[in-house]
Design goal:
The protein has eleven helices and 15 strands. It folds into two domains: 201 residues, DHBP synthase (Alpha-Beta Complex); 87 residues, 3-Layer(aba) Sandwich (Rossmann fold).
Length: 318
């Protein structure tokens, strides 16, 4: 049987234009894509993922002109961020234009938009126009960073996964909006808070205690492996207390020197970007090993370390 993982951009474009859902590569994670004017295909994304309809989708565009057509206004601070980080791993939440369906925005009056920094996807977008694309994983599971991850999640139900190699950023985009005259950070991601504040000054952090899901990736449980996952600084204590358990250990920079079933060091050089690139891939690998526990050392709580720690806190929630 022919693999659904294929490299033909022309085929992906034809399928999208024909109202199909196609898995596409981005620099952050792989996504499930549909053209924004194909309501049946967009509905199928929600169905395939098991995603609540109250959770909005991000729209991906090829250029600033496409973005401007999808929003009613573009606040100056957000325009500055677009000029600095697009194409890139930053999603901007903007007042939506009338043409953007409530199906995409979960009936909110805003829409999340970004220009991805992936040459294959940009080529697709130039030929298709804007697409809606959440991450290509079942709801609350680990986001996929390779075409194989997507094919493993959805062995049936997809006609094509467009192969664009391993994702370079490795975690989702940062999501930023503008409310009451100030820039709001809704979701930590592949562009760090520090980088954003260099451009627009102090940024307010969205109150995550509120129950409303304003943007994707805000639910308390998310990005979760099937294997029981623990994040702790007390690695030695945990391993000693679970001496008979099969443990997979994820360390940031240095080996634990402990005897465990499997240990991975995310970045021997201590590079947080490299750690971000490897975290989901490592979780996917560990989930295949029939471990009793995945135990993770928290990262330094700065720059992309803060974004990775946010993902890990959601992976262990509940």
């Amino acid at each position: 049987m022919e693999s659904i993982i294929q490299s033909s951009i022309e085929k992906a474009v034809a399928l999208l234009k024909n109202g199909e859902v196609v898995a596409i590569p981005t620099e952050t994670v792989y996504g499930l894509a549909a053209l924004i004017d194909q309501p049946k295909a967009i509905d199928y994304i929600f169905e395939l993922k098991g995603r609540p309809r109250s959770n909005p989708l991000i729209v991906h565009v090829a250029n600033l002109q496409q973005a401007e057509k999808l929003c009613d206004s573009f606040p100056t601070p957000l325009k500055k961020l677009a000029q600095q980080f697009w194409p890139g791993s930053l999603t901007l939440v903007l007042p939506k234009a009338q043409q953007v369906s409530n199906q995409i925005t979960a009936s909110k009056n805003t829409v999340g938009i970004r220009i991805p920094n992936h040459p294959i996807l940009l080529q697709v977008l130039k030929e298709t126009g804007p697409i809606a694309a959440p991450s290509a994983n079942p709801f609350e599971r680990i986001s996929p960073t390779t075409a194989k991850h997507v094919a493993d999640y959805f062995p049936e139900g997809l006609k094509m996964v467009l192969d664009g190699g391993a994702c370079q950023a490795g975690i989702e985009s940062t999501i930023v909006g503008f409310e009451n005259g100030e820039v709001i950070l809704y979701r930590l991601g592949a562009v760090s808070l520090e980088e954003i504040e260099k451009v627009v000054g102090k940024v307010a952090l969205f109150n995550a205690q509120k129950s409303t899901v304003v943007t994707p990736g805000m639910s308390k449980k998310h990005y979760a492996p099937k294997t029981k996952t623990v994040v702790t600084k007390n690695i030695n204590d945990f391993v000693n207390q679970h001496a008979t358990s099969k443990i997979g250990l994820i360390m940031f920079q240095q080996s634990s020197k402990l005897i465990v079933a499997k240990e991975v060091i995310l970045s021997p050089s201590g590079n947080l970007n490299e750690a971000a690139q490897h975290i989901y891939q490592t979780l996917h690998k560990f989930d295949q090993l029939e471990l009793d526990y995945i135990v993770i050392e928290p990262l330094p709580n700065k720059e992309l370390g803060r974004s990775i720690n946010d993902r890990l806190s959601r992976a262990v929630h509940g």
